[in-house]
Design a protein that fits this description.
2 copies of one chain form a homodimer. The radius of gyration of chain A is 15 Å and the shape is globular. Chain A contains 7 helices and 10 strands. In chain A, strand 9 and strand 10 form a beta hairpin. An 8-stranded mixed beta sheet of chain A has the order 3-4-2-1-5-6-10-9, with helices on both faces. A two-stranded parallel ribbon of chain A has the order 7-8. The first copy, chain A, has about 200 residues and is of the alpha/beta class. Chains A and B meet through helix 1, strand 2 and strand 4 of A and helix 1, strand 2 and strand 4 of B.
């Protein structure tokens, strides 16, 4: 199962780009959208997505954490960070896109791990925790069960990388072709690192 | 204003990829999600998006029509096709992604115009109207107020092309960089045409 953690002012494509890939995982048993209180959550582009309350999520597999302007407020919300920490501990894999990794860092689950994030918000992100080994030049970074990606569409590349690690490169490439997507499959190539 | 026309079993990324770009248009005044009856509409990846009924849409600018499996049923739904035709006539620009162009074709708004679509559904798409000048090898096609793109992520490239046509290539490239997206900016380059 893929649990997508949403919050107001998330970047819509951060979440729904990777979901389009992850929902095609061979052994995927479904996608759930959750938020702290449940109900409609508004992302960029005025998209309102239906969510269940986090307390109703009982099956844990892959958790996906998008980024967006909403992360700024949540990085100081101890209740949210506690729930995020618990969700990450219960999940088999934790994937984040863009400034989603700032929330993971602040929740304390990335300590002594390599991680990356959006390049335009970089200075703010790395201030969330100095105990993370931040990697600036990376399309995405894998460390144990944690996959963190750079900004927005890097999440699609990371999701394909995740599928590749589970089901092989050919299967990932097949999903990419189905989406007519030119997959940037080298996680170390990051044309935006200098931005 | 951008009006996004949704229906059950649309491909989520077809709609929300381009929206992430179009919502950043210089003169964008908002994004509305509409469906024939309003309410929650379910796309791929189990994403449920809140929509207003089409009858409540009173401002017309850009209309975005995604593709997806749901198009198969709608291509035979005369009521839907009539509403789509009317929406296209009132709108300044009509953008479609993937099999969205099959609906435009069946609604009769693409007659004697060039258009493209998803390559995997190609044979079904072109059967929807022989009066369209279908262009197989194209990332996206522009003919008058109609922008039609190939499958799924080609819609993001098309949306950036649309922004480029309105506000210049530099501005489009700036949006792409903000999304850390490697824009395939040549509409005639289509690596999936042979698929």
């Amino acid at each position: 199962v893929v649990n997508v953690l949403l919050f107001d002012d998330f970047t819509t494509l951060d979440a729904l780009g990777p979901v389009e890939v992850l929902s095609r995982l061979k052994d995927n048993t479904g996608v759930t959208y959750a938020s702290v209180s449940g109900g409609l959550v508004r992302g960029t582009g005025n998209a309102q997505i239906a969510t269940v309350p986090l307390s109703e999520v009982k099956t844990f597999g892959i958790v996906l954490v998008p980024g967006g302007m909403g992360t700024r407020k949540l990085a100081d919300d101890e209740t949210f960070l506690g729930q995020l920490r618990s969700l990450c501990e219960k999940s088999e894999f934790v994937l984040s896109v863009c400034t989603g990794s700032a929330l993971l860092a602040k929740a304390g689950v990335l300590e002594d791990r390599k991680a990356t994030s959006n390049k335009m918000a970089w200075d703010w992100v790395i201030r969330q925790s100095r105990r993370v080994d931040w990697v600036r030049k990376a399309r995405w970074v894998v460390d144990g069960k944690f996959y963190t990606s750079s900004g927005v569409t890097a999440g699609i590349d990371m999701a394909l990388g995740f599928v590749s690690d589970r089901s092989g490169q050919d299967y990932a490439q097949k999903i990419a072709s189905g989406l007519e997507y030119l997959w940037n499959s080298d996680r170390d190539t990051d044309p935006f690192a200098g931005v």
